[in-house]
Design a protein that fits this description.
The protein is of the alpha/beta class. The protein contains 10 helices and 15 strands. The structure holds nicotinamide-adenine-dinucleotide.
Length: 352
């Protein structure tokens, strides 16, 4: 395979990050775009010069001149489309979350094993420069044993509306949408320890606050504030079998002074902050040092992160790299998030 022939399924807001990364990769031929809304698929195909347009993903998957697909559709379709794509012999880059239920995530995992095709889960923050730089320090032992991590992804106003706010189609609110990013990042950098138990709380106190003006936020392509059946905020404590723990809180809306994205890790030889900007904390000659790595982007660079994620996927399709975000990790994150919702519903800890 000299070029990987790509189809992008779902041509809404995030597809732009995929499409622009694919067209910049010299080893990619952008073969097709698909969206159930034909005009949206056509507009994306025209803009990024994709050869063919589909409105039914099954027709795209039947296209023999496509090797791999990006799935950028609603969360409740990820499992079904991933399995169909794998069965059709395509490699898959599936946007996060892998699925909205553990049962379906396990079915996708079985399909990967059965077909021998690749499936990369869209944990894009693993590919940020700040993450990659820190990973080298962690792998070299600079943080020692990481026993505690803490992450917040708090939006004071940022319910994307449309399907995101419809639990039927999204599977959940901020926990599933933005929580997976920071839970995954901590878990990945902690060395993917086995989860022992989860305690969570979920709140639906403020609604989507669509009355608020003069503040912009990420919106679904079909933004609609009329329906909202997801939580406003969630928090959780995740315990691991190796004794480590992770605390997380996330919101679509909260009476917070400002938005906040923080990801912090603490080990017995050093600590680190990945967000809001990379910093490594250490001790030398009886003095604490906050080390500021000199790199272009010390915070997550959205478009750069997607380019790096997609370039990596293409390298995997070409057989020149091994997946770093395989289906198993998507299954594990689905288990963690589902357990947080279960714990909140039951009002007690869920033990794995
Ligand atoms: N990695 C990230 O940082 C990130 C950021 C935003 C969104 N996402 C994920 O990307 C996915 C899409 O999000 P979005 O913001 O682009 O949503 P969106 O609503 O803007 O776009 C989704 C598109 O998918 C289309 N679609 C839905 N079901 C379809 C189907 N069965 N066949 C064909 N087309 C279908 C819709 O018509 C729509 O155009 C979600 O899973 C979301 O969680 C990831």
């Amino acid at each position: 395979m000299s070029k990987v022939r790509i189809g992008v399924i779902g041509a809404g807001s995030i597809s732009e990050a995929h499409l622009s990364a694919y067209v910049q990769n010299p080893h990619v031929e952008l073969a097709a775009v698909c969206d159930q809304k034909g005009d949206r698929a056509r507009a994306a195909a025209d803009r990024f010069q994709a050869k063919r347009v589909y409105t039914d993903y099954r027709e795209l998957l039947a296209d023999k001149d496509i090797d791999a697909v990006s799935i950028c559709t609603w969360n409740d379709t990820h499992g079904e489309i991933s399995i169909a794509a794998l069965e059709a012999g395509k490699h898959v880059l599936c946007e996060k979350p892998l699925c909205t239920s553990v049962e379906q995530a396990l079915e996708v995992e079985a399909a990967v094993r059965r077909t021998g095709r690749l499936l990369q889960v869209g944990f894009v923050r693993r590919y940020g420069t700040n993450t990659k730089v820190l990973r080298r320090f962690i792998d070299a032992g600079d943080l020692g044993e990481i026993y505690y991590a803490k992450a917040s992804y708090l939006r004071r106003l940022g319910n994307p509306g449309g399907w995101f706010a419809d639990r039927e189609r999204s599977g959940g609110g901020p926990l599933l949408d933005i929580g997976v990013h920071v839970i995954d990042l901590c878990w990945y950098l902690m060395g993917r320890p086995k989860v022992k138990s989860v305690t969570g709380n979920v709140y639906t106190k403020l609604g989507n606050r669509s009355n608020v003006g003069n503040l912009s936020f990420y919106q679904a392509a079909d933004y609609d504030a009329a329906l909202n059946t997801v939580e406003d905020m969630a928090n959780a404590l995740i315990r691991f079998e190796n004794g480590a723990s992770l605390m997380v809180d996330v919101s679509f809306t909260l009476h917070a002074k400002q938005d906040e994205v923080t990801v912090k890790l603490y080990g017995d030889r050093g600590g680190a902050e990945v967000e809001p900007e990379l910093c490594i904390v250490t001790e030398k000659h009886d003095t604490i040092l906050n080390v500021s790595p000199q790199i272009d982007e010390r915070t997550f660079d959205f478009m750069g992160g997607f380019r790096s994620e997609i370039d990596y996927f293409v390298e995997c399709c070409l057989g020149r790299a091994e997946l770093i975000a395989p289906v198993e990790d998507g299954v594990e994150l689905t288990k963690i998030v589902s357990a947080i919702y279960e714990s909140a519903a039951k009002g007690r800890e869920v033990v794995f």
